[in-house]
Inverse folding.
DNA sequence: GTCTATACCGCGATAGAC
DNA sequence: GTCTATCGCGGTATAGAC
């Protein structure tokens, strides 16, 4: 995105990945190890063998790094929401959204652990979440039907918050992806009263 | 606690509340307005008309202020857990715990919004949560029966995280305490499969 | 026992040279 | 694209006034 002058860069010559990419990978690693707060620009710079100022050339602020790290997961969520919105029947929308949401949560659960305990990421995510696309409104809009009562709203919030947070919880690290996904899905269905989808897609 | 030499101090003379108490009240207000991270010791000191060092006299570190702010809620939770543990039947334990937890969440929901989005408080709470008393283990111990399977563990986590987070969510601020409590309780029951307690206590 | 003055160092961020 | 230098502010720490 914002491609511009790129062109020949992609999969360029020999070894050297461009700094921005290396930077993001390094930042993600350090973030998951020490949290966003606990990771200083100095640590990132040192790990890359450059100075803080060099890091600042690629990102205007630390929060931008956090946003960039969170972006892939948010983009996937965006796709899921679009797919869900495209379904005709409301029940099918909810089913697809739930399954897709759980899937994104499970596949990005290490990131999730960060999201939920670090305001650095949390704020970055919220910015994107309520930004241009406002993922949260769209999510809730699908989950809640045409005219939801207070109980529906509470239920939807508990479901999303619970699944998201539980997915990233330390106690879940022992479970393999598939097991976790199955259980989260089941819990979500019970919450949202969608007892069980038809056996074949 | 750690009373010691006190004695005559309690409910002392005229106007001046002791600084420590004013400090905590001020800190709580600023924390809820700007978050823990967003509140500097300088801001607290200014609001009280003292210097940073004075604040530092009462609390060795910023994290201690956060802990002190969170303490009342955690103590209430502690009581609820004890009460629940004292019940004879497991079903009654879960019912009491759920109702008590929801109640604490609702009454401290402003604080909750902080807990869940600010690692300052989050860490303080975790310290207490896993400290001496290890509230979390005891909570989970009651919620999960004798030998829980993976599904039970996931469910319990979703329930606690979901109720806690949803209770503090901005979207819930419009609901009055009683309505919120009723809906959270109902959602919790559905999750934990405790359909409905007997009509009279 | 309560507070002020002052200082330290690491942090995120900026400006400008190469 | 990277570096050196520097800034202001944050939490922390100590010495000492009252």
């Amino acid at each position: 995105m914002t491609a511009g002058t790129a062109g020949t860069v992609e999969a360029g010559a020999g070894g050297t990945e461009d700094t921005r990419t290396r930077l993001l990978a390094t930042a993600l690693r350090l973030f998951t190890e020490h949290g966003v707060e606990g990771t200083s620009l100095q640590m990132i710079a040192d790990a890359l063998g450059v100075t803080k100022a060099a890091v600042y050339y690629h990102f205007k602020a630390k929060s931008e790094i956090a946003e960039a790290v969170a972006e892939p997961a948010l983009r996937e969520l965006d796709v899921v929401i679009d797919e869900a919105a495209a379904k005709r029947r409301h029940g099918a929308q909810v089913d697809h959204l739930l399954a897709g949401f759980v899937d994104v949560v499970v596949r990005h659960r290490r990131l999730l652990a960060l999201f939920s305990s670090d305001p650095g990421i949390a704020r970055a995510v919220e910015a994107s979440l309520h930004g241009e696309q406002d993922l949260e409104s769209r999510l809730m809009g699908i989950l809640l039907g045409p005219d939801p009562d207070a109980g529906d709203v509470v239920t939807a919030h508990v479901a999303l918050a619970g699944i998201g947070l539980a997915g990233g919880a330390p106690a879940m690290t022992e479970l393999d992806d598939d097991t976790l996904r199955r259980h989260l899905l089941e819990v979500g269905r019970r919450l949202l009263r969608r007892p069980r989808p038809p056996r074949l897609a």
